[in-house]
Amino acid sequence: MEENYSDIALTAAELLKQSKFEDAIEKYSEAFRIKELLAYKGMLTFFYPFKNVKFSVGDMRDLSRLQHFFRKSDKTFINLIALNYLTFREKVSLKFLNEYSGFGAKTLEQHVLIALMFDALNQESSADDIYLDIYNKIKNNKSFQLGTIQTRKGKVYAVASKKLLKNIFLFKEYETYKEASFEAECSSLINNLIKDEPNFSVSSIRHPIKDVQSNKYINIIKRERCITLDNVANNLDETLKESVRFLALIHSRLDKKDMQQVTLDDLILKLNYDANIKSILMKNKTPIEASLTGIPLAYHKDAHPLNYGIKEDKTLILFDCENKGLRPVTSDLAKLLLLHPLINKSLIKNQLDNYVRLYNLYSEHCKIHDLQLPFLNASIELVFSYPSTLTEHRIFDDRMKKHLLDVSLFSIGAIKENFNDFYEAYSRQYENIESVINVLYA
Fold first, then answer.
1. 54, exposed or middle or buried, with CB in 10 Å at 0-12, 13-18, 19+?
2. pLDDT tens digits along 248-261
């Protein structure tokens, strides 16, 4: 373990030398935890061999003599704090970090680095204070408001990655602690599930912090710079194949304990439509429900292409880990395969078959035989519910509107052609649903 500890610390120092600040802090944090464990067991007997350190221990005792070095480099600051901590000078390390934190004007990215270092030193309350300070600067000062996204639950503010940071740091508002902690728990569940999958990743979400001024709870989310699945055009087939594999793994393996089913009734009643539209949908939902007989329920992760990121090394990242409850697997599949503007019918068929094969491979209990009819009905459900998800910040562009109208016409036509007995049994309901869709998309 000592050898491993030394290797990790040296790797962190090398990453810092390359100006990979977040990666370096993450590795230092890993080294800190091993060092603490070894020290607790009385096994740590060596002095960490830091290289290229320009300051003696005597220099470090006098923080005031080092302040001019802070003006030169963030590397110096991280290097000195890590050196002190790894050489059993924890109090000096923390004093150093507090000194740097309060010294001079800093950019938002520098404030994030300071918060990351406080977390690395197990000083979560100090990190909380830094993050809340950043949140209030972004929220209240337009010159710091680098980006904002409106969601139904609240605003999401972004500290952009410009010079020092690798990730974009999102500050997501919630009204209650329960809502905020739930997303973090879902992220942790998925992270544990994919720990042996090097090509899959999930957004890191810190524990919720309460902002007394706004009386809101804030999640700090690391979102790596990448392109989202809806912007993938080259090698779309291969990227989609991996996205489907990721979804099949989550659906088949994620522990569903304590998760509640979201019924079609629940979905319709929550739609942002007038009472008449919802009444028509409620009266004509029977074919959709009937088609789902025997289809397994799964963790519904809102598999919109915007919630998948692809890094340069092809690693697939999941965003927006809030669980929407247990729903039929076709609900996620419909979003994933239909809300990408370039996915054609042939590709959808291939990926449906791919999903069934992978789900059956991963699942130890439930097996799926065919998804064509339930998927077509899930597509109709997606089309009539999609306009309700829009806010003033999420525009329903003409291309997507035409695409989804085509999806509804194709799905109803495919049911009529390939599952005629089923269609004839519910033809009146399909006609009524089609009329509602035409009104919603007019």
1. exposed
2. 999 998 877 778 88
pLDDT digits (tens, 9 = 90+) for 177-236: 988 998 888 888 899 999 899 999 998 899 999 999 899 999 999 988 888 898 888 888
Burial of 417 per CB tally in 10 Å (0-12, 13-18, 19+): exposed
Partners of 204 in the beta sheet? 222
Cβ atoms of 384 and 284 closer than 8 Å? no
Is residue 48 predicted with pLDDT exceeding 70?
Answer: no
Determine the Cα–Cα distance for residues 268 and 282; give it in Å rounded to an integer: 7
Q: What is the dihedral of CA 96, 99, 102, 106, to 10 degrees?
A: -50
Cβ–Cβ < 8 Å for 425, 433: no
Strand partners, 310: 227, 316
- CA distance readout (Å), 143 to 137, 146, 179: 9, 8, 29
Q: Write down the residue that tokens 């977040």 correspond to.
A: 22
- Return the CATH fold of 232-440: Aminoglycoside 3'-phosphotransferase; Chain: A, domain 2 (3.90.1200)
Domain boundaries, the chain: 2-170+220-224, 232-440
**In the beta sheet, which residues pair with residue 155?**
150
As a whole number of angstroms, the distance between CA 309 and CA 224 comes to 8
307-316 per-position pLDDT tens digit: 899 988 889 9
Give this prediction's pTM: 0.83
* Per-residue pLDDT tens digits for 382-407: 999 988 876 544 556 778 888 888 89
